[in-house]
UniProtKB/TrEMBL annotation:
<feature type="transmembrane region" description="Helical">
    <location>
        <begin position="76"/>
        <end position="97"/>
    </location>
</feature>
<dbReference type="GO" id="GO:0005886">
    <property type="term" value="C:plasma membrane"/>
</dbReference>
<feature type="transmembrane region" description="Helical">
    <location>
        <begin position="12"/>
        <end position="35"/>
    </location>
</feature>
<feature type="transmembrane region" description="Helical">
    <location>
        <begin position="47"/>
        <end position="64"/>
    </location>
</feature>
<keyword id="KW-0812">Transmembrane</keyword>
<protein>
    <submittedName>
        <fullName>GtrA family protein</fullName>
    </submittedName>
</protein>
<feature type="domain" description="GtrA/DPMS transmembrane">
    <location>
        <begin position="16"/>
        <end position="129"/>
    </location>
</feature>
<dbReference type="Pfam" id="PF04138">
    <property type="entry name" value="GtrA_DPMS_TM"/>
</dbReference>
<comment type="similarity">
    <text>Belongs to the GtrA family.</text>
</comment>
<dbReference type="GO" id="GO:0000271">
    <property type="term" value="P:polysaccharide biosynthetic process"/>
</dbReference>
<dbReference type="InterPro" id="IPR007267">
    <property type="entry name" value="GtrA_DPMS_TM"/>
</dbReference>
<keyword id="KW-0472">Membrane</keyword>
<feature type="transmembrane region" description="Helical">
    <location>
        <begin position="103"/>
        <end position="122"/>
    </location>
</feature>
<dbReference type="InterPro" id="IPR051401">
    <property type="entry name" value="GtrA_CellWall_Glycosyl"/>
</dbReference>
<keyword id="KW-1133">Transmembrane helix</keyword>
Length: 145
């Protein structure tokens, strides 16, 4: 990767992390609120927090991180697929670490977050918000060149 491309990727990832902090605040707020009030166990609370954070993440990442012009009708379902896989990873990691290994829920969530943030960034960068190839834009919906 060339120097300027690497620098652009680094800037984009830093922006992604900044947006992630906002989404993370929502996620952890829901998680802690549900667990500490006894309304949900740690795994269910983590999943509820993940969904709340995903709502924040979509809007901010679309606009600030990726500057995507992909239509919402296309970007939202793609975002949903990437987020659903991240949701599944969150469930697996949280269940394994809290129920299987008995780790405290916040420690388990920090580890889950670390794994899922990498998956989500890559998925959104290369698929959800990726720029459409120019050939597809010229061909339009008909596929005729």
């Amino acid at each position: 990767m060339r120097g300027d491309a690497l620098a652009a990727l680094a800037r984009q990832f830093v922006s992604y992390l900044g947006v992630g902090l906002a989404a993370l605040a929502v996620h952890y707020g829901v998680l802690i609120g549900l667990v500490e009030t006894g309304r949900a166990d740690s795994v269910r609370a983590a999943l509820a927090g993940y969904l709340a954070g995903a709502i924040v993440s979509y809007g901010l990442n679309r606009r600030l991180t990726f500057g995507s012009a992909r239509p919402h009708a296309e970007a939202t379902w793609r975002f949903g697929v990437v987020a659903a896989i991240g949701f599944g990873l969150t469930w697996l990691i949280m269940a394994a670490l809290t129920r299987g290994l008995g780790l405290p829920y916040l420690a388990a969530q920090v580890l889950a977050t670390g794994a899922v943030v990498v998956w989500n960034f890559l998925g959104h960068r290369v698929w959800t918000f990726a720029t459409r190839p120019a050939a597809m834009l010229r061909e339009g919906a008909s596929g005729v060149r």
